[in-house]
Structures
1.
Amino acid sequence: MHVKRVALLGATGSIGRQAIEIVERNPELELCGLQSGSTPLDALAAAYGVEHAQVGGDATALLDACEPDVVLNAIVGFAGVRATLWTLERGITLALANKESLVAAGELAVAAGERGGGLLIPVDSEHSALYQCLEGRARETVESLVLTASGGPFRGRARSELSGVTAAEALAHPTWTMGRKITVDSATLANKGLELIEAHWLFGLPYEQIEVVVHPTSVVHSLVRLRDGALLAHLGHPDMRVPISFALTYPERAPTPARALDLAAGLELRFEAPDLEAFPLLGLARRAGEQGGTFPCAYNAANEVAVAAFLEGRIGFLDIAATVEDALDVVDGSPARDLDDLVEADRAARRAAERRLVPA
Ligand SMILES: NC(=O)c1ccc[n+]([C@@H]2O[C@H](COP(=O)([O-])OP(=O)(O)OC[C@H]3O[C@@H](n4cnc5c(N)ncnc54)[C@H](OP(=O)(O)O)[C@@H]3O)[C@@H](O)[C@H]2O)c1
């Protein structure tokens, strides 16, 4: 039996904790490295006999030391970029939850992946679904990808009804339990915007071939339209342990504790168009993606700044999108030749967003 060595970055987060559950259940997986941002890891490392654990700092130092077969990048935000590029460059399997790194560093990541020649398996449930629906299919047979969005806690509200919503309301997601940043992103639809750009880089399709549809129950994780008129869907209860396990055990598909869908009990398969006026961050992401260069990096950076400010009560809900829009208007968006350029583009967009937060 070959035991896969798993380096788990973002080990103390929502994805990280669920990943530990998956590793614990599977004798073919073992943790070789753990990283968090600031939460101490001593107890976790001792409980799982993990030699390499690191709090904060550059994850690539940990990865160098622990020699993983697979890296699960579940860090939140741009902080995950270095680990994504490190892993792709070396041809080590990357199980990617940290969508922000692919959004910010799409071009560099694709180039690193081509040089490295390893596997990049998405952990985002929508992209895991698409990955599975696309497996073994010639690209020219694919008409479009359809990303599903729950619509978040404010689905159905008009823009005018969103100005006074609080962080606590935004954090009450109807179908998924996740970290705070992604939960706010789900409420603004920035999460779907990030996923749109992520899908573009993962699957190499132009933006006009990637649709977004709201599906409130989150049972259909995403769909692929084929040119002969067939529409393939991936269904299941919203449970991140399934895509985490898929990525970590690929291609074996180990069993998981996920509850089976009871089809006979009745399934609600309702879909509707996203409201781009109430939730402008989805349209802004599409525009940033189409503009290319470092515009997606700037979109992500400004969004991170704005979400943090919203969670601290410094700005209102609608200010999140306004901050991102303003930042995108002032950055130059020129392409990044390397990681240093990208880090500078990220910083410039953060500065632009911070300036927008200061009351005039
Ligand atoms: N949660 C979900 O269901 C879900 C679904 C799809 C995709 N994702 C994606 O997965 C990623 C993680 O999401 P999450 O919900 O698990 O977030 P989370 O619960 O907030 O956890 C974030 C993790 O990242 C660590 N971290 C934060 N800043 C860091 C830094 N500078 N360097 C290294 N580690 C750092 C945190 O450590 P500390 O504990 O020390 O802060 C924590 O372990 C995000 O990119 C998210 O979009 C999540």
2.
Amino acid sequence: MAVTEVIEYDRIKNVRQTPLEELYTSGHRTCQGCESAFTMREFIKAAGPRTVVTGATGCMYVANTSYMTSPWIVPWMHTQLGAGGSSAVGMSAGIRALQRKGKIKQEKINVINFCGDLGGGDMGLSGISGALQTDLDLLIILYDNESAANTDIQATGMTTYGAQTTFTPPGSKHRIMQRRWKKNVAPMLAVGHPTCKYVATACATYPPLDYLNKVRKALAIGGPTFIHTFDPCPKGWDFYPEYGHEIGELGIKSGIFPLYEIVEGKVSYTYDPRQKGRIKVREYLEKQGRFAHLIDEDVDHIQGVIDEMWDEWEVPGVTPFKGNLELARN
Ligand SMILES: Cc1ncc(C[n+]2csc(CCOP(=O)(O)OP(=O)(O)O)c2C)c(N)n1
Ligand code: SF4
Ligand SMILES: [Mg+2]
């Protein structure tokens, strides 16, 4: 459906061009140094006031709306843990219907859903898949703090291999209880959903402005779009709150969380650690208490998997297949 007014988003070229207006303000109850709260603050800064937000259950719902308060200045709705995608579909379709009937002005209204790694990457994956198969204008932001943080740090499908969580405590019998490698959600959604116009991964703080501009790009492209963010969590990852930005930066520089955009089947790296010099993952792991039980052999294993991803995958971070697939001969 044609919209009469389209918001033109300018690329933010330097920090001085960052909008000063705060649409996610003080008054929330997230932990000190919570990077997911920063992810919220930044996406709404980039999107601006003509935006409605839906948020699935998780820290970013519970800690943001305790005791009938809210830091959101824009209209905001809570939805069930696995319903991020479907809530965005309902909201976007509703706005479209109201505009078609002339009940509200025809203008670009951003619909943004945020959901956590458990809510979006595990429980709500089917709803997101459905949302990405529509022609609706919506953006889904999966904020990934690598645990079910709100219910006291349980492992999810997106928790890093080896991490201690309340579901995966290291013990004398098994040092490593979290033996799954992180589920690679963004490429799965990009490859399987040709209707999805834009897929990106991001870290709210590193490289500076990268995330703000990815949000703007997704909203400008319109249609169903998806961004997966990397959010250090002081409580769950066990580090002092002041180190959140640094840990995010080390994660990106070590290549454990690749940063890229996928538009019309083309992958572009927005931070390529191969060109900039990939640091050892040990520098990232050793700053977090959740990896304190790892021994050298474990760190070497994690390093080996990351090396393979960057050196041997067909498209590093996206497709692990080497060369063309061949039919298996039975
Ligand atoms: C259907 C359902 N099952 C379980 C819960 C309990 N619950 C609330 S928040 C949460 C964790 C969500 O984890 P994630 O999506 O990663 O968000 P985070 O808390 O880490 O921000 C759980 C299990 C729930 N609200 N609904
Ligand atoms: S537990 Fe982690 S994600 Fe949740 S509010 Fe605290 S720092 Fe943020
Ligand atoms: Mg989580």
